[in-house]
Amino acid sequence: MTNREVCEIFHEIAEILEILGENPFKSRAYRNAARVLENAGFDVQDLVREGRLEDVPGIGSALAAKIRELVTTGRLAYYEDLKQKAPRDVLEMLKIPGVGAKTVQVFLNHNITSLQELEAAARDQRLRELPGIGKKTEEEILRGLAAMQERQKRWLLSVASMAVKEIGGYLAGLDKAARVEVAGSYRRGRETVGDLDFVVASDDAPAVIARFVDAPWVREVVAEGDLKATVITVWGIQADLYVVAPPLFASTLHHFTGSKEHNVALRERARQHGWKISEYGIVKEEETLTPATEEEFFQLIGLSYIPPEMREDRGEIRAAERGELPRLVETGDIEGDLHVHSRASDGANTLEELAEAAMARGYRYLAVTDHSRSLAFTNGLTEERLKEQREEIDRLNREFRNFRLLAGIEVDILSDGRLDFDDRVLSQLDVVVASVHSGFRQDQETLNRRIEAALKNEHVDIIGHPTGRLISRRDPYALDVGRVLELAADTGTALEINANPDRLDLSDAYVRQGRDLGVRFAIDTDAHHVNSLDDMQYGVLTARRGWAQKQDVINTLPLDELEKWLKRHGR
DNA sequence: GCCGTTTTCGGCCCGACTGTTTTCAGTCG
């Protein structure tokens, strides 16, 4: 029983309790405990073994007993009972927009106990007979049922980014908009976002709202009020707009940047001091303070500035109280990219084009790391072709000033754990990235052996996309990542934060875990085209979400220090 | 169900929008 499995069960229990009309604070307690476990750096099984469950804030005697039962028997009688009362199909009803626990209660009281029955009742116009439900709600439910698949979708950061540029540009162009900022999970740099939130400062809210719902990229207006509006865009992604008077901009921006958990924790803390926090500012002793900036906002409540990427209630508030927040790595710290492909394997560009693009981005170096021979479908390089490429790189480097192409390889970690080139070949290269591209379905033991062999090879500098996941398309390999992190800290091998928005691998949570162990990272784009060099921003966001600092990331090093690191790195 | 410089009992984050109501509950972020 993993942390994640316990969390899922707790979340489900919380939903069932709400539908059953139990004490709302009880379901909150389950949710809260689930969230603590999700973000925890520990394994519940260890805590159970060590009898330390109750030391975890949010877990008292009752929840501890339930976790113990789950971990030791794999089942939970209480949960089995609850499931009888509200089967999964009923919980699905909560996913319909506008339908919450109270509405589901009404359905259950009128013998509507499945999505099918719900749809039938709506079609027969029987729903509108129920208390608190009218014609509009009935229609909304029918629409919601039809769009359920689509609406649950989350969007990759790269897709959201395109929409943000368009919408942000449009809003910024409005006369009445004094300030425009994107908020929400996009601003926090989450790997996927469910919708987009914009905050605009204006003295004329109605005018801004009117232009927003009337924009050319609006497909459907979901809600329209005096201060906020919600639309579905032509790209399918939902966009929310909040318009406030200029003095309230910073408070509102903070509020809608979230996360929800961060906000709740912050308000809870404020309440303990006798203050009150809302999007309208901070109330201290009857006086409402409206900070001009987010920096001032945090200052007013006795905290140092918490960057958006850290606002997840994962310990950032306590760190800010103590002035112990890390100084997160920034895009401007990046001196070069250590994993890109050229035309020699499956990339699109020549070495010159790659070098030029790197220099245009202010980089001091770029490692060309084409695939190795065994990846035939990528036109992987043989030893001979690798040698030719090295010669061309040497020739080009003689012409560059303040820039260096590094000769590298993305060497395949073969199914049996050997590398695709022997040590003699690898030792002649500047940078060696080792990655798994086959045998994804092997068992955990085998996969760990393969990666561990690569980590222990003294010529390997970086493990590429360490867990192999593709966001919302392919799960990670069955890897014990904890063990990989520990070994990487030991051997001094860097782990990649692959910046490709489909990968973001390592993920933010693993970065955080690795950082605490002293792992070094390389933020690489794995670009197959010069345009993808710009993906670096997503990798940096992920690193920041994992609390990584400049010194945790090897490609922030100036060239001479990087070369020293590549030669030694801790061995 | 948790928790305690206000508490071992009585609290537990805050406000806008919508629809169904005639003053508010439910939902959402």
Describe the structure.
With 571 residues, this protein is an alpha/beta fold. Strands 11-12-13-14-15-16-17 form a 7-stranded parallel beta sheet. The protein has a 5-stranded mixed beta sheet with strand order 2-4-7-6-5, sandwiched between helices. Helix 21 (444-456) runs parallel beside helix 22. The chain binds one DNA strand of 29 nucleotides through helix 2, helix 4, helix 7, helix 9 and helix 15.
The number of helices is 25
Write down how many β-strands occur, each being a DSSP E stretch of 2 or more residues. Answer: 17
Gap between N and C termini, in Å? Answer: 37 Å
Strand content: 5-15%
Arithmetic mean pLDDT: 91
Strand order, sheet with most strands:
11-12-13-14-15-16-17
The coarse silhouette is globular
Low-confidence stretches: none
* Main sheet attributes: strand count, strand direction, barrel closure: 7 strands, parallel
Assembly of the depicted chains: single chain
Provide the gyration radius in Å.
26 Å
The helical percent reads 40-55%
Q: Structural class given helices, strands, pairing?
A: alpha/beta
Topology at a glance:
Elements: H1 3-19, H2 24-39, H3 44-50, H4 61-73, H5 77-85, H6 88-92, H7 101-109, H8 115-123, H9 135-146, H10 148-151, E1 155-156, H11 157-172, E2 179-182, H12 184-188, E3 192-193, E4 195-201, H13 205-213, E5 218-224, E6 228-233, E7 238-244, H14 249-257, H15 260-272, E8 276-278, E9 281-284, E10 287-289, H16 294-300, H17 316-321, E11 336-340, H18 351-360, E12 365-371, H19 383-397, E13 404-412, H20 423-426, E14 431-435, H21 444-456, E15 462-463, H22 481-491, E16 494-498, H23 508-517, E17 521-524, H24 536-545, H25 559-568
Parallel strand pairs: 4-7, 11-12, 12-13, 13-14, 14-15, 15-16, 16-17
Antiparallel strand pairs: 1-3, 2-4, 5-6, 6-7, 8-9, 9-10
Helix pairs in contact: 1-2, 1-5, 1-7, 8-9, 21-22, 22-23, 23-24
The structure holds one DNA strand of 29 nucleotides.
